[in-house]
Amino acid sequence: SYRQQMHKGLKRPPGPWSYPLIGNMLGRNPHLSLTRMSHKYGDMMQIHIGTKPVLVLSGLNTIKQALVKQGEDFMGRPDLYSFRNIGDGQSLTFSTESGEMWQICRKLVQNALKTFSVSPSPNSSSICLLEEHISKEADYLVKKFQQLMEEKKSFDPYRYVVVSVTNVICAMCFGKRYSHDDQELISIVSLLDGLEDIAASGNPADFIPILQYLPSHSMKKLKEFNDRFLAFLQRSVKEHYKSFYKTSLIQQSQEKRLEPNANIPEEKILNLVNDLVGAGFDTVTTALSWCLMYLLTYPEVQKRIHEEIDENIGRERKPRMSDRIRLPYTEAFIVEMFRHSSFLPFTIPHCTTKDTVLKGYYIPKGLCVFVNQRQVNHDEKLWKDPFIFSPERFLTADRMKINRAETEKVLVFGMGKQRCIGEAIARWEVFLFLTTLLQQLEFSGRAGEKVDMTPQYGLIMKHKRCEHFQVKQHFHMERK
Ligand code: HEM
């Protein structure tokens, strides 16, 4: 057969010896252990998790070859147990579907997001909806942090950032803003605490079937989160139909449904909204939260961002999306946060759609594929001193501009056919939240307290919560 012909003379990728039923031991930090193994076995290595074989890809060129040049072959999603618990198994991101419906949905979401980030706000002729929402939320955070500082002398910003970021994405999907004291939203988002490891690459229950039948506290919590989240969204979507908001995902999808070839069923839309809120709130919150941690750890970096804002924006007006191009150091800081933290150590797992050959190795159809983004971001072959935090590495020699060739080596949003849909929005959000906060505030940690930057492994790696943030008013620096 064709399969055998292809097979003949081609080797399987190398990999470590594994235990018969358990597979390879990845330990508590698979992103680190798999990187170590890749030093020995190379950019393409086959491991076993439980009884299932998994192809682990490292190295920028190898990953590009698979996800971009041979994108069709690698664009599947594996049928994993933990994925089935996300969005009723109907999710765009996590379902195994990659046919026509998936493509229509992906297009729809892309268009909706694009519209949202360029269409003008109904309240102002000059700014877009995204800018308006972020700006409003960031202003709220500034006041909240100042108030917390007065009342408590130090605080954990995470809890407030998560509601603000969720508000931006909810505004986008159904035109609603939640109060920071909204107990329902807070209790739903906090259900996610401690669940980071569930959808992470290498969750044992995905690969050792028997574990699926054991009662699992985490799995119960994930199910509860999903049920409540879906119910919550269902209600919000219903409410939206009564509201007057004109630009939102739901609005868009209804218009699109009038087109004959885009007949998307009602419940599908709910799943899309679920996906977007799910993908949009935790990632952007985590990105901002890492930014704040780096500011605390590197005060001299914070000082340079302050100087850049003072010189280019001043205090008379709010930061705008259009300022981004004029703040290369701030941009470099954000890219370096993405690279150094690599808080999405792996993409969402992929799976091959057919038998294929990658760099001379035979790869069968249906093989689960992990893409090690963190390895790329710390590869000694690509980076000088990869473990040092240095925004300067992304500036041109005269330090006036971003060095695009360098920023393009950073891998955080995946690449190819399934790359993140929300990348542009995510980058805008991080930029505008950060600059609006820093225009007015200076962050520091309570004296004598250590900041723990150790990432905790998960699909999205978080730092430990930090309770001792402090802020003071930032005063415009005098020009010398
Ligand atoms: C997928 C990163 C924010 C929507 C992904 C993937 C990554 C990623 C690595 C998987 C790519 C792959 O499997 O190859 C990030 C990061 C974010 C972020 C680092 C923030 C800093 C967002 C936002 C949205 C979003 C704000 C929505 C508004 C999605 C969706 C997918 C996705 C829908 C699934 C795409 C598909 O399976 O076809 N993202 N993302 N993301 N992201 Fe994001």
TrEMBL record:
GO biological process assignments: hormone biosynthetic process; progesterone metabolic process
* Main localization category: endoplasmic reticulum
The UniProt entry lists membrane topology as: Peripheral membrane protein
The answer, when asked if Membrane is one of the entry's keywords, is yes
| Keywords noted in UniProt | Endoplasmic reticulum, Heme, Iron, Membrane, Metal-binding, Microsome, Monooxygenase, Oxidoreductase, Transmembrane, Transmembrane helix
Heme keyword on record: yes
The organism's superkingdom is given as: Eukaryota
Pull one GO CC term from this UniProt entry. Answer: endoplasmic reticulum membrane
A Gene Ontology molecular-function term? steroid 17-alpha-monooxygenase activity
User: What cofactor does its activity depend on?
Assistant: heme
Q: Which InterPro entries match?
A: Cyt_P450, Cyt_P450_E_grp-I, Cyt_P450_E_grp-I_CYP1, Cyt_P450_sf
Binding residues for heme, per the UniProt record?
C420
Return the EC number: 1.14.14.1
Tell where it localizes.
Endoplasmic reticulum membrane; Microsome membrane
**Enzyme class, one word?**
oxidoreductase
Q: Name one Pfam family in it.
A: p450
Which family does the entry's similarity section mention?
Belongs to the cytochrome P450 family.
Q: Briefly, what is this protein's role?
A: Cytochromes P450 are a group of heme-thiolate monooxygenases. They oxidize a variety of structurally unrelated compounds, including steroids, fatty acids, and xenobiotics.
Protein name as catalogued: Cytochrome P450 1A
Q: Which organism is it from?
A: Sphenodon punctatus (Tuatara)
